[in-house]
Amino acid sequence: MPELPEVEALREYLDEHLTGRVVERVLPLAVSVLKTYDPPLSALEGQPAGATARYGKFLALRIGGLHLVTHLARAGWLRWQETLPAQPPRPGRGPLALRVVLEGGGGFDLTEAGTQKRLAVYVVHDPQEVPGIARLGPDPLADEFDRDAFAALLAGDRRQIKGLLRDQSVIAGIGNAYSDEILHAAKVSPFKLAASFDEDQVTHLYEAVRATLGEAVARAHGVAAGALKAEKKSGLRVHGRDGEPCPVCGDTVRSVSFADSSLQYCPTCQTGGKPLADRRLSRLLK
Ligand SMILES: [Zn+2]
């Protein structure tokens, strides 16, 4: 799933390639990809593209006086095309969700792999009209997001830190992969309660948030849209690396189920050498 660093790289890519181009056609190709109906997609046609903005994991493409907003969800992607086939594709087949054709040739597709279709597109006058954007917490790379702002988010929260970091209404843009990486960098158990962090631990975790995301953004900078997924995977130290050696200490990276998926961590670096119990499974067995 694209998270803050990949979406930021896509934003940069679109800023460079899309700004100034005129939209010729917008073709919805998957059922229910479009979450708004007024203004219609056709209102974008004939309009020039302006700057692209990022809100958490959302991209907002300015087109004329409107914004084409998308959330790529778990398996979505943006595929830039220098040339597009003359025949429009038939709707409802394969991974194509939405095609934007630009005047002068080329354009881009929003694609979504798999059978669960969650990719969402909105046409709005203001990105804040999108409910998922309106409830976003602060951006962790914003200048004003300092250590004390982060401490205030953790204070009094009885949830496990892994869940808090992924909650878009608390902090915008961090998903399953980068929360694993941040907690590994900070040497913190994913199950530690947010409210239990002392002053030094808050500082270490804050620094891990900024460094992990900042480094990922820097790595993704300038990488072509099509190569971003492979780039992301190569930079991950524990996420998706169950059974591989931890690059810091050499212990074996382990996996445990969490919420609707699983997380990966290093026992030596993060949990005093003890494997985490699969709470979901133990709860079911009770
Ligand atoms: Zn380790």
What's the Cα radius of gyration? 20 Å
End-to-end distance: 33 Å
Q: Could you spell the SSE succession in H and E letters?
A: HEEEEEEEEHHHHHHEEHH
**Helicity level:** 25-40%
Number of helices: 9
Q: Which structural class is indicated by helix and strand composition?
A: alpha+beta
Per DSSP, what share of the residues sits in E-state strands of 2 or more residues? 15-25%
Strand order of the largest sheet: 1-6-7-5
Q: Give a list of the ligands.
A: zinc ion
Tally of strands = 10
Average pLDDT level:
92
The parts where pLDDT drops under 50 for at least 5 residues are: none
What profile does the largest beta sheet have?
Answer: 4 strands, antiparallel
Shape: elongated
Provide a descriptive summary of the structure in words.
This protein is α+β, with helices and mostly antiparallel strands and 286 residues long. It has nine helices and ten strands. Zinc ion binds at residues 246, 248-249, 251, 266, 268-269.
Chain-wise SSE layout:
Blueprint: H1 4-17, E1 23-28, E2 49-55, E3 58-63, E4 66-71, E5 76-81, E6 96-102, E7 107-112, E8 120-124, H2 131-134, H3 147-154, H4 161-166, H5 176-185, H6 199-220, H7 228-235, E9 254-258, E10 261-265, H8 267-270, H9 279-285
Antiparallel strand pairs: 1-6, 2-3, 3-4, 4-8, 5-7, 6-7, 9-10
Helix pairs in contact: 1-6, 3-6, 5-6
Bound molecules: zinc ion (ZN).
